[in-house]
Sequence to fold (501 residues):
Amino acid sequence: MEIALVVPYVLVLGLLCTLGAHRAHMVYLLFRNRARLADTSNIRALGPAELPSVTLQLPLYNEATVAARLLNAAGSIDYPRDRFEIQVLDDSTDETRTIAASKVAELEQRGIRASYVRRPDRTGYKAGALDYGLKTARGELIAIFDADFVPQPDFLQKLVGHFQDPGVGMVQARWAHMNREASFLTRIQALMLDGHHLVENRARFGAGLFFNFAGTGGVWRRTAIEAAGGWQHDTITEDLDLSYRAQMAGFRFIYRADVSTPAELPEEMSAFRAQQHRWAKGTVQTARKLLGRIVSARLPFAQRVEACFHMLPHFAYPLMLLLTMLLLPALLLLPASDVRTMLLIDLPLCVGATGSLVLFYATAEYVQGRSIWSAIAKLPLLIAMGAGLAPHLTKAVFSGLTSMAGEFVRTPKRGGAAGRYRQVAQLPIAEIALALLSLANVVASIETGHWFAAPFAALFTAGYAGVAALVVREQLGARRASLAPSLDETAEVATEVAGAA
Fold:
């Protein structure tokens, strides 16, 4: 019985530690290639006559809280007016249509070439909108921003010089975070995204490995999009899909960490989970679509291996669920006093869960001039949040394995109007059940003397329970908000009746 328990436990832990070791490898690549990364911004400035034409595409879908901010920022971009156009690709069904059309008219009055584009239907969601706009776009280069971003005036001037090299297909800028300090949730999200942008993307770029357009805050060479087969919507991460197809077609990507594009982070757990679900499901779909082709392609071995790590990280979430379920019998059946047990359970759980994460996220803070201690202080919350997201993202992984495409669920934007858009979520039954199981793991680890396991079981308990509590609170708040008008109307009727009496 011990063997039947230890084998799957060690296998799960080994896979999780492999993913952790990959994070440490990313840090190694980052520092090994720091000279090349530092040299990336040293490009020849283009004269006015050399600047290529650019189309700025702004896909919108029900973005009333942020549409005006986005278009104001787009109109402030410093670029010759005769070589710059703005396309507003609006699939909205609410007042965003009026706001966006009005702003486009204002831009045109200022002498900026701008067009308001509506499709007959929403086929293909964001990918379909980008493809539809490309048919009438005039630019040699295509810049793309989502509605929650605020493009900076010098964005294009800093990036277009890279396209002097005909082999460059895309240049990606770093995401910055306007509301980083809004709550513990936004602070953890900011750290997670900084790890992706400032460690993973820079490491891959510096080592000559494939990395992806982030869906926004980047500039494409139009011919690279077309040569790769264009925007396709058989996955819901069209950016990752096109990125790999373009790089396999021979185009190189550039990452500019020194050019930042401010954006808004989701401030509600329900919205954050929906965003992560889309990313997880779409990444698995893209792996189904392309990974076999990549592995069998005549590419350097390192590129093929890294593509696997790039497209399969979300499998960590079902592994975390398995670990949660296997931990209780392991704690009860394997004695803590046994040295072999300590090596199999306690020490790997401690080192594997924290060592690579500390290194990875401390590096993300260090390279942007922030204190590494801030990353270390946030690490318990980050681990807890990862556990809390595991049930929802495990469903995303299996959905990606069993179906292609699907609805592109937009992330609700707060902008200046809290509660204008809310994400509907189901009751977190799985999270509640896993919180109770993890609590049992805490008790068992203490009772059996597995002292190393106790704090991690406690973090998992806090993660499952915390995510469940936040989702329930947000959904109850949304329910009350939706009932508020009818309650007000009832009160008004009661007042009128009382007055008449």
Summary: Residues 129 and 135 are 10 Å apart (CA to CA).
